[in-house]
Design brief:
The structure is a single chain. By secondary structure, the chain is mostly beta strands. It has two domains: 81 residues, no CATH class; 296 residues, no CATH class. 6% of the residues lie in helices and 58% in strands. It has three helices and 19 strands. The protein has a 13-stranded antiparallel beta sheet with strand order 1-2-5-6-7-8-11-12-13-14-17-18-19. It has a four-stranded mixed beta sheet with strand order 9-10-16-15, with no helix packed on it. A two-stranded antiparallel sheet has the order 3-4. Strand 11 and strand 12 form a beta hairpin. The longest helix is centred in the C-terminal third of the chain and has 12 residues. The protein starts with 15 loop residues before the first strand and ends with a strand.
Length: 381
């Protein structure tokens, strides 16, 4: 199914995940996930050659549209004994349940949630990963109950930038070369240039095998070092899953605050001075050059929830049909998901000149969505 803006009625190679899970010894484990999303190829060619009057440097990048490759997890776990362990590397912050269980084969609908992906309430959309280290483990609580936990110190999400270059021919006007700098919240640095400013945790109680209920949290500074202000992200989560017979309910709620975002916007303006700079026709008669800076996705508060209702149906005729023949436990799973998010005081437009904010428009937004479907699951996850 195609879900990209402006996409045709065709096919999408949504994603392919390469997973490796190696137990090096009784106490050492290495786990990794590498995701190829809408990727066919990436080819890079670089060349430096001496020419008359100087040196020519060239670089060519080829690939298909919307292609992405990324490391989602890569960590080493050292078992301490008694179901306790140290884990370090590229980890998934355990805020809520979706980010740590984001793989498509876990869920019965291919669409990801508003809270975690499409209108993210968590600091960075899933799969959100960070460089960090911490403790993971579990404790038995009586004969059946169990407490599972994760707690990490990490680099933490921060304001970072992406560059977009656009070349445009215009007749009879001057041709245009534009560089757009988009500053937004992204995963923290993994090259050692960022302090470990964040902490995330999750504690889940499983009274029985049928389900669990969990609380989680995140705290971390997100303003970068080049800004004169320091503001934190504070987020809390409540999630759970429960199964009774063939019926199952699963859900998550997240509440996130981002400090005084108006002050963050003013500090950003003071630091970079101008939101738009362009050459005049007197300076460049044939080519207009423009640099535009944009602060995107910054809101004072974000909160939301999602809930899945589903039924695991195992009709006898399914196992003997052409669909289920040869599988031990084939199922048909009707499912309904309800999502809702609230975004408060989001900065929609920010313009500044000489370090002074000239325009700052904020807005409150809500979105809800109902998804219904039927999933045929020949094997269990």
């Amino acid at each position: 199914m195609n879900d990209l803006p402006g996409s045709a009625k065709g096919f999408t190679f949504r994603r392919f995940v390469l997973t490796a899970d190696a137990k090096l010894s009784d106490r050492l484990r290495v786990y990794s996930e590498t995701e190829l999303e809408r990727l066919l190829e990436i080819e890079v060619e670089k060349d430096a050659s001496r020419e008359s009057g100087g040196v020519r440097f060239g670089q060519e990048v080829e690939g298909n549209n919307h292609a992405e490759i990324g490391v989602e997890q890569l960590w080493l776990q050292y078992n301490l004994g008694g179901n306790q362990a140290i884990r370090a590397g590229i980890i998934l912050p355990p805020l809520g349940r979706f980010n740590i269980n984001h793989d498509d084969d876990y869920y019965d609908v291919p669409r990801r949630t508003l809270v975690d992906r499409d209108a993210p309430v968590i600091p960075v959309k899933a799969a959100w990963r960070e460089a960090g280290a911490g403790l993971v483990g579990s404790f038995n609580l009586g004969a059946q109950a169990k407490l599972n936990y994760q707690a990490y110190v990490m680099s933490g999400s921060t304001m970072n930038f992406n560059l977009e270059h656009v070349a445009q021919t215009r007749v009879p006007r001057r041709s245009k070369q534009e560089t757009e700098v988009e500053v937004s919240l992204q995963s923290g640095a993994v090259d050692g240039t960022q302090n470990a400013n964040a902490f995330s945790w999750r504690a889940a109680i499983s009274p029985r095998l049928a389900g669990e209920i969990a609380v989680s949290g995140y705290h971390g500074k997100y303003t970068p070092q080049f800004m004169t202000i320091s503001e934190p992200i504070n987020a809390w989560g409540l999630d759970g899953k429960w199964r009774l017979g063939g019926f199952e309910i699963e859900g998550e709620g997240i509440y996130s605050t981002f400090g005084n975002t108006r002050d963050v916007a003013r500090s950003f303006a003071q630091t970079v001075a101008n939101s738009t700079v362009e050459t005049s026709s007197a300076e460049a008669a044939q080519l207009e050059s423009e640099i535009e800076l944009e602060l995107t996705g910054l809101a004072r508060r974000r909160y939301g929830m999602w809930t899945d209702f589903k039924y695991h149906w195992r009709p006898a005729l399914l196992k003997n049909s052409f669909l289920g023949r040869g599988f031990d436990d084939p199922q048909i799973i009707p499912i309904v998901r309800y999502d809702r998010v609230w975004i408060r005081q989001q900065i929609d437009e920010l313009a500044f000149r000489g370090g002074v904010v000239t325009t700052m428009d904020v807005a409150n937004r809500e979105q809800h969505r109902i998804t219904a479907g039927i999933n045929f699951r020949p094997i269990q996850n």
